Backbone:
């Protein structure tokens, strides 16, 4: 992916200059929260803000734990054209109703302003002790579009058709593939046919998604989450079995043109506006889900990470990029939902994600930022205990399964708490990759989705903050140095 070459460098540079100028007064950290669908972005953003403004327990975030953060408040965001992140609604759902947020359907943004006291006398005298943290949330599906940027219509079509015919999700593709077989790509363009094909292709993508495997979801991301572009021509196309774009006026040419429009008017502006200006980045990876889904899910995850990492590689140096383009100097890879396994397994979870990230970074020829890997739970939905099985004491987790979840054939109603032994992760992460370096099929773990935790109330009726695992470590890595 050549993000720095596809963006309009001059426009971008000016935008950055303007952004920098307003920051002379208050420095800003633009934090990218990246992750595939259901990776845990919305929950992470909500929990991070909640803990900072609601007095969370953050011992591993020294600026906060030592009392140097005087205040953290939500302020008007910088971009007027982007909806505000609905923090209040997400917190209410999590804390009052014990419900997780719905899948995100639209981009949104939030600005948190932190007032702090610097540790050094000089800094206290020279700087305001105030910093903005800007965060953007978006549907995870959109991230997959990165992969389209360096594909032609014919290449993308070939891949999509191959996958539909032979890949695991193929069973949903019959209606669309049948239509594909019946059309002549070289015939004159036809709007009704284009809409019909786009609808069948979208239906196929939707049914793969409904199958519950977001990792193997494929682009174009807006077909599933159109945002405000539903029904526009840039979203009305479908792969076609073609070698090239076809003669002028043909169906193939029309579809190829729309594919290019999709890249130009949808994908490129999104990444330019929201990704090219990032200072820090956290990449959330539902590693446990991938491990449980087996080899192809790990391979898909790796491919998605390669595409993501190549996008954030700093572009070829030129005088402009050297001068004003931002450079992400810290990237944190986080294995999310770590509360699904006992803490004794967290090191192993980190080791497995490190291995996946390392391979992805190598393939993307990515270097140049500080990288850390962490297992975390933005909202901790479980406690720990032990269960005894055949006289053996096993480390277990305790939580309330979501309504409809089943364990050993028993269905739950969302009110009953259970203790379970989720299984152990292997000591050696290599076991997930066979001798050819391919991820091997390994599914040992038992997973249940739990309800968000029940929070005690104080005598005054206030709830405690949302519990988490290592959210404070993540904060320290991502912004700690800027509060020194
Ligand atoms: N137990 C537990 N579950 C979590 C945690 N974070 C996320 N989840 C689960 O993962 C699901 C997805 O989390 P979201 O934050 O909505 O994921 P997202 O990345 O915003 O997903 P999209 O909006 O679809 O892109 C939630 O509905 C929860 O079931 C966590 O820290 N602990
Ligand atoms: Mg979301």
Residues:
């Amino acid at each position: 992916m050549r993000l720095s070459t596809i963006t309009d460098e001059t426009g971008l540079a000016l935008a950055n200059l303007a952004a920098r100028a307003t920051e002379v007064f208050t420095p800003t950290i633009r934090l990218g929260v990246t992750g595939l669908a259901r990776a845990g972005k919305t929950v992470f953003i909500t929990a991070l803000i909640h803990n900072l403004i609601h007095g969370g327990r953050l011992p591993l975030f020294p600026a906060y734990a030592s009392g140097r953060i005087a205040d953290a408040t939500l302020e008007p965001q910088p971009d007027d054209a982007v909806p505000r992140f609905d923090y209040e609604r997400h917190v209410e759902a999590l804390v009052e109703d014990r419900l997780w947020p719905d899948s995100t359907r639209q981009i949104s943004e939030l600005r948190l302003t932190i007032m702090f006291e610097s540790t050094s006398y000089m800094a206290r005298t020279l700087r305001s002790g105030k910093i903005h943290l800007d965060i953007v949330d978006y549907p995870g599906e959109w991230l997959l579009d990165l992969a389209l940027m360096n594909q032609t219509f014919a290449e993308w079509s070939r891949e999509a058709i191959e996958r539909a015919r032979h890949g695991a999700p193929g069973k949903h593709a019959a209606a669309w593939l049948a239509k594909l077989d019946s059309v002549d790509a070289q015939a004159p363009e036809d709007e009704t046919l284009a809409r019909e094909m786009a609808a069948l292709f979208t239906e196929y993508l939707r049914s793969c998604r409904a199958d519950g495997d977001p990792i193997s979801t494929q682009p174009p991301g807006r077909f599933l989450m159109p945002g405000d572009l539903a029904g526009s021509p840039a979203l009305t196309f479908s792969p076609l079995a073609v070698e090239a774009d076809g003669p002028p006026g043909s169906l193939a040419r029309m579809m190829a043109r729309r594919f290019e429009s999709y890249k130009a008017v949808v994908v490129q502006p999104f990444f330019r506006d929201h990704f090219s200006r990032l200072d820090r980045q956290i990449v959330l990876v539902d590693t446990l889900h991938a491990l449980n889904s087996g080899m192809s899910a790990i391979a898909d995850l790796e491919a998605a990470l390669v595409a993501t990492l190549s996008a954030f590689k700093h572009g070829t140096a030129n005088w402009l990029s050297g001068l004003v383009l931002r450079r992400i100097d810290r990237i944190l890879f986080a294995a999310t939902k770590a509360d699904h396994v006992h803490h004794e397994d967290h090191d192993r979870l980190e080791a497995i994600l490190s291995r996946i990230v390392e391979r992805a970074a190598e393939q993307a020829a990515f270097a140049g930022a500080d990288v850390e890997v962490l297992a975390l739970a933005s909202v901790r939905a479980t406690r720990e205990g032990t269960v005894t099985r055949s006289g053996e004491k096993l480390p277990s987790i305790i939580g309330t399964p979501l309504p409809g979840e089943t364990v050993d054939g028993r269905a739950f109603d969302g009110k009953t708490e259970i203790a379970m032994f989720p299984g152990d992760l292997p000591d050696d992460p290599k076991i997930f990759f066979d001798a050819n370096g391919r991820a091997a099929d390994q599914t040992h773990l038992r997973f249940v989705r739990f309800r968000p935790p029940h929070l005690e109330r104080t005598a005054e009726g206030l709830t405690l903050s949302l519990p988490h695992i290592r959210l404070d470590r993540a904060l320290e890595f991502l912004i700690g140095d800027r509060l020194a």
